Amino acid sequence: MEGRLELTGLRGGVSWSREGVHIRLRARAEARTDGLYKLYLAGAGGELEAGTLLPEGKDLALERRLALDRLERAGCWPLCRAEGRRAFSFSQERAWRAGEELAGRMTDEVLRRAARGVRGALIRETEGGWEAAVPFRPGRELDLVPLVCLGRLMEWKGGIYLRFSFDRTGRPLPPGQA
After folding, report:
1. What would the DSSP string read from start to end of 99-144?
2. What is the pTM (predicted TM-score) of this model?
């Protein structure tokens, strides 16, 4: 048995193959310089920290052999999601950053569809998850319409944005709770 998942939280993917009572896991992601990242695996019943993604060439990588019963006990088998999550920030301030794919961080299909094509989004990590800010342009169609009631206005570098909070799995939270 083999499989592949795209990573959320980082650009990359995870592949696995079954080796008897073990799973051989290989993760590869675009290198980041803003902190250390860990790989989390999730199934229908829970999640498991699989290890730290380490620099390898121009990428971050992790290769591991995990006992299948460990994944089952954690509620992670069969695998349905893989996430690269920043475990340690190299900067003191949790800065907004631009250019990250917003749709890939969403777990709900309606929100993923709404986030596709959003231009100019900002993202930053928080203690309990992450926040996204999308440009607010008076007189134009809103981005992320399904979430607009959870948004709050903010100003950043001369622009106006609608700011949203999410937990680590990409589920929206009431304002300020991430």
Report:
1. ---SGGG--SHHHHHHHTT--S-EEEE-SSEEEEEEE--TTSPPSS
2. 0.55
Instruction: Judge residue 36's burial from the number of C-beta atoms within 10 Å of its C-beta, 0-12 exposed, 13-18 middle, 19 or more buried.
Output: middle
pLDDT of residue 36: 86
The whole-number mean pLDDT for each consecutive block of 10 residues of the chain, a chain of 178 residues, reads: 92 96 96 87 94 93 96 94 84 72 86 88 86 88 87 87 89 77
Buried b (16+ CB within 10 A) or exposed e, 112-143: eebbeeeeebbbbbbeebbbbbbbbeeeeeeb
What's the confidence (pLDDT) of residue 177? Answer: 66
Task: Give every CB contact of residue 156 below 8 A, 6+ residues apart in sequence.
Answer: 96, 122, 133
Most distant CA pair in the chain, distance: 59
In a domain, 29, yes or no: yes
* Closest residue by Cα to residue 3 from 82, 110, 113: 82
State the amino acid at position 80 in one-letter form: C
User: Of 67, 89, 111, which residue constitutes the final position of a domain?
Assistant: 89
Q: What is the DSSP string of 5-54?
A: EEEESSSEEEEEEEETTEEEEEEEEE--SSEEEEEEEEETTEEEEEEEEE
Where a domain ends, among 72, 89, 106?
89
Q: Which residue do the tokens 């100003």 mark?
A: 155
